[in-house]
TrEMBL record:
This is DUF389 domain-containing protein. It holds the Pfam family DUF389. Keywords: Membrane, Transmembrane, Transmembrane helix. InterPro entries: DUF389 (IPR005240). The keyword Transmembrane helix applies. The chain crosses the membrane at residues 116-135, 141-163, 175-193, 213-235, 242-264, 276-296. Coiled coil: none annotated.
Amino acid sequence: MLHLRVVCPAERTDELLGWLTDAPGVAHLTVSRGAAVSPAGDLLGADIAREAVDDVLAGLCDRGVDRDGGITLEPLDTVLSDRADRAEEAVPGLGSDAVVWDELVGRSGDDAQLSASFLGFLTIACLLAAVGVVTNSPVTIVGAMVVGPEFGPLAALAVGLVGRRRDLAARALRALGIGFPVALVATALASLAAEAAGLVTVSPLESADQVDFIYQVGPFSLIVALLAGAAGMLAMTSSKSAALVGVFISVTTVPAAGYAVVAATLGDWTRSLSSVAQLLVNLVGIVIAAAVVLLLRTRTYRRRGLGRPLSEG
């Protein structure tokens, strides 16, 4: 279940209390008169079955609560209550299968921001991948996969496509379209500096048999990308965040980008172009699979659209 916290004008409290009392999936309704200071008003609280959250949020926003007051949600790890059990039984489906669109849009929107930390992680991941290539180290490649933050924008792009949210899709494309070029340029400069210092030659690529899977594009490249995208979206929509680590390790987006840069600076254009193809296959496969999983998990759309507009940041 999720805990709902609503700040509303005092003159709206009785109306909202009556509506929430009759709403299916709602339990433990409370009110604190005059508790809100900014904006001034009353504070309402309730525990909501996850399957009913979308309908409750839609009803509150239809009544202007998001404009006149405020709505917050937080997960509840443990709820011991017969009333809560009855509230969950009153709505169809399972909580673990319910997609809360406002939660998903907000989370994916945050993960898709073109922030300094996003650029930093992506650049470090590409540099790690480049080091893994020239040292023929699969362990370093795995480290680059884990550090890479690119799944966030890819998931946000899938959410934007399924939900027809142009603002979310645009934010994701901006993060990917600017983030990868910045990281690749930084990696290229580092590679050129390493070559000038004599640390890197063409021979490491020819003997890097432990990491040649990075640029070898085949049917399993797409299969792995599709499986990773599906697992990633399942993890995001079911709050199984631990599974995302496995998703990061299974795809070769960042390693392919790092390999392409190293190969290009050494003049090995065949491997460089193959790595670019590997990168594109992974990016497209992840987005397609994530979008399909999200479509399958979504039964109905709310009347007011899928989530509130994203805030700038």
